[in-house]
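Job type: complex structure
Entries:
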Amino acid sequence: MTLTARALDGVPEIAADTDLALLLAERAGAPLHDGDVVVVAHKAVSKAEGRVRRLGEVEPSPRAVELAAAHDKDPRHVQVVLDETAELLRAARGVLICVTHHGFVCANAGVDASNAADSDTLILLPLDPDASARALRARLRELTGAAPAVVITDSFGRAWRHGQTDVAIGVAGLAPLVDWRGRTDSVGRELRATWIALADEVAGAADLARDKDSRQPLVIVSGLDRHVLPADDDGPGAAALLRGASEDLFR
Amino acid sequence: MTLTARALDGVPEIAADTDLALLLAERAGAPLHDGDVVVVAHKAVSKAEGRVRRLGEVEPSPRAVELAAAHDKDPRHVQVVLDETAELLRAARGVLICVTHHGFVCANAGVDASNAADSDTLILLPLDPDASARALRARLRELTGAAPAVVITDSFGRAWRHGQTDVAIGVAGLAPLVDWRGRTDSVGRELRATWIALADEVAGAADLARDKDSRQPLVIVSGLDRHVLPADDDGPGAAALLRGASEDLFR
């Protein structure tokens, strides 16, 4: 089996009214297929959905002022992070590790200043990234007749390991997890004893196809047909990837 | 840019005297290139290096007996895990989360019974996976004249998210991390504000190319030429991916 991941060139700046599915269909260079997976960096989705905040319009709370002073940050930026945060897990060495309202555990609740249109603008995570993925898949189908899967990604740090990898924050039409635990092959040998976070591996593979900068938010991954769901089944989404606090050993 | 990952078919059972580089060169189907990345599931490396233990030869310590009773495990298996463990971080719900002697944080110190030759055999992580990767790269160069990068992988669980993803435990000839923090493009816009764990994304991408079972330990990833180091430079290896305990917020 061969997997391919191809980043689309020439994607223009995304605005609040950009039709991402139309942009994808126009820039894909080749027809999209049902078995393809379209991978979209969340910033493109967030900008298209207007999920941005302007620092000039933020009034920091006393808690934001206090945290900002302790961690050498802009109190308005911290306030935006707190607004996106359900629980602050750690605040240390200038890093705020948050549980977002969606349940993602990540730095700064996914709030990011880079690649914003200007330095006064912060980009948030989509309000409901699984819904965003489903809407994008439906719109792609409407425009092209094909129903590729959609994965929306962000770059998250990890416990224990340096660096960030892209992970799935929204999924439609792809099995987010593949469970091989306990299965045996035709002659009774155990198959891979793993429960594979497929959508996260797809997010990382797509990131590898990108050039050095972020003006390549759109990547098409092919070769995963066996994991792409039928057009009328979006699957459980990236929500299925979240380990709840009660079953998590590291909070 | 297009990334491709191709799993090699027809790889025979790996024995303690298997020349993995020769096997790779023979099964590659096409000549290897300097810019390729050869991704090898660690079990193939561990078997070739004889990094296995037989349960029948293990004498469990009182601590292993106690942990095994508390977590419904075979005390001999637990003893092997403890032998591979520098620090036991958590023991809960039948899972032992360990820091290995290498510094990896993972379940059961990477000790695995699946895909062993028989049910009495446990497969350990390589003693020094970066050295294994370097040796494999050197031998590939000797055999083929090409010096592709080598990444040795295992499937690790994560904090906060369900499922496992393949990560790099040994690397030679590939930049394990790519640092774009603070860099700006030609017109002064900030590039991707990330420190990318490239080798981990490569490990995950390779896993996606595998079929449903684990008899495809060898995957060739192409399209990453810009990250592959010259033949005489193996780089810092997967050791560079390890976050030390003193800088880790989640232990």
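Summary: The helical segments of chain A are 20-27, 42-48, 62-71, 75-83, 129-144, 198-209. The CA atoms of residues 114 and 122 of chain A lie 8 Å apart.
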